[in-house]
Amino acid sequence: MTGTQHLSTSAARWARHLRGAVTEPANRDYGDTLNGFQSLRCHEPALVVHPADTDDVRAAVALAAAEGTRIAVQATGHGLAFPLRGEGILIDTSALTAVRVNPTARTAWVEAGATWQHVIDAAAPHGLAPLSGSLPGVGAVSYTLGGGVGLLARRYGFAADHVRRLDLVTADGTPHQVTATSEPDLFWALRGAGSNFGVVTSMEIDLVPVTTLYGGGLFFDLHRVPSLARQWHEWTSALPDELTSALALLPFPDSPTAPEPLRGRHVGQIQISFLGTQAAGAALLKPLRALGPVLDTVREIPYAESGAVFAEPDRPHAYRGESLLLRDLDADALTAATADSAPGSGPPCVVGFRHLGGALARQPDVANAVGHRDAAYTVGTVSPVGPGELTAARARHHDILASWRPLALGRALNFTFDDLAEDDIDTAFSPGDRGRLRRLRARHDPHRLLRPAFPLGR
Question: What pTM does this model have?
């Protein structure tokens, strides 16, 4: 009897141990339960468990461990790389969205399925904000376990630097409350490589006293300002930590869905997130505005509307991308990236850069597994992928990133949306940490039952 058959025939038995629903392939709504934001690929497990609470998560992991079956977890499904195929269980945490804010301690307790928007909305009435990312619909726990480079990153560091506690179920079904003092090795590893060591059911994180941003986008016609990437790089060299920015080089479709000034153009979008007054922010942006943006959306906004800074697509779709952590940027490679991202040179592709440094370069009070803090920038590629287009998109991304590999320190997993070889995944972490991480995974998941988004090498 195969693992799939065994699990399918025992669905009723699983349901007896859980308060939430259990879905198997024979159920009419099985396919609907698998849909995540990333529609390029989806899980095809033997069973989907929809836990009603964290006790259900613990019970599901314990049952899977007893049967020796693989375990994957999905909240929003933004970064699926290694799907289950006809085996194992998928734990769908999307209903576990509770957030509790302690305004006195400036902390939030966050369940496994909560998005950053859930946390933002809970924190805002208290004049607080989380270290959330550019897309508020992303799952807060999975984002944080991978490090998390957000809108306030240069001022406050990685989201993983501000975790106080993680409630974890290891692959044998054992619950753990992980803190710096209770389980220091796991606390170190979970904050940066977390999904390799168990299923996190909730976390406690710091909040910061932020209510507004001076933020938004400056959009340039790259035909008119072909040197934009180089000028943005030069501009970032003397910024205060309060300003976090990024640059996207993208072909806008000639479509009524695109803003009229951008339709059919090759556009450079500079994304701005500044913690300071409008007057101070305007002074910092003066050199960029002198270049003549065709659209300027930078303004003072409530942090609850922080998704407007990057203005990323918020509807599920198929896409593919990968990213590298860089020592610095190169002027010739920036010129090449501008040309490579132009319309008509292959499958549509966005080439993006993020400015790091500041608090990201400093160790937190309690060290974690986040690697390559000396990286100064990231470079990444993202393409929408239709049927039969994946191979061409991969080839184009490989060619675009080739000129950046000599400056690369390793992979940036938070901005990678495809499967990678385990050796490539290992490069996301500092060389001295890789062996320690592999040993911890072998200790806590010796049979490799967990199917994390990016599995560590053996």
Answer: 0.95
